[in-house]
Amino acid sequence: MKAIVFDQPGDESQLYLAEVADPAPAPEAVLLHVAATALNRADLLQREGKYPVPPGANPILGLEVAGTVIEVGSTVTGFEVGDNVCALVNGGGYAQQIAVDHRMLLKLPEKLSFTKAAAIPEVFLTAYQALYWIARIQASETVLIHAGASGVGTAAIQLVRLAGGVPIVTASGHKHAALEELGAARCIDYRAEDFAEAVLDATDGRGADVILDFVGGPYLAQNLQCSAVDARIVSLAALGGARVADFSMAPFLRKRIQLTGTTMRSRTDEYRRRLTADFRRDIWPHFADGSLQAVVDTIYDWEEVAAAHRYMASNANVGKIVMTIGLD
């Protein structure tokens, strides 16, 4: 089969199509013909040599796929050849075929396309984990979502609404209309406004009950400032840097704030299977009834992978950047 690979860390020009070995599915896995994958920030970091591949993970880029089952392992139940599915995977999405544990699969509703389905697993499972498993969001709570126009951000807006919460987001001003249409109650232009003051103003001084953060150290002081009593901050990345200057524990003690860091790719296979099972039960039916939607910004052919990576690096997208996988 063919896959997109790179020989040494660097910019997007390092990526190219090459012949690689076909995957061999284990008894509990299915073999998928991959129709589409989607880009994630981890793809860019791995390509740059800044995100080491976890032990046992597939070194090929791509953390989510949509496609068709073409072979079924001997112990697989509930799936058969011809099923259209999507899945969170631990690498390998930038390829024509991939072997996936059947417990990670989500069967596509009839009207969900491969390009839309490929935009769901990584971001919705990440947002679901952060909001439902870690923060344990409750109805009527206010949630501050940084990077609201990102894939995880657009998923989180919808999941907060589904839980009966109130989503407030930070994003560039020109993205606000699209995020309000998705359900954001308040959009904050982080370039023009102090987001902590804006959150406190929007909540009559209470602050946010839950904060999803991707920026890291540079935002910690403001996150603490606009946290409500008993707030839960979930740190999903440190794109702005991990260091914190002049750090004080006082706000954590005074407001009883919890700070939890998490990444998806470092989780065990068993954890990811349990998360997927809960997501399949609690969230997946809402894609069939239309109350949740994949948010796709742009679709590239995989021969345009360099352009797709450049576009993601520009931070111009609202939602996901999807890549279709060629047959030849």
TrEMBL record:
Keywords: NADP, Oxidoreductase. Residues 10-323 form the Enoyl reductase (ER) domain. It holds the Pfam family ADH_N. It comes from the Bacteria. GO terms for molecular function: NADPH binding; oxidoreductase activity, acting on NAD(P)H. Gene3D superfamilies: Medium-chain alcohol dehydrogenases, catalytic domain (3.90.180.10), NAD(P)-binding Rossmann-like Domain (3.40.50.720). The keyword NADP applies. This is NADPH:quinone oxidoreductase. It comes from Neolewinella marina.
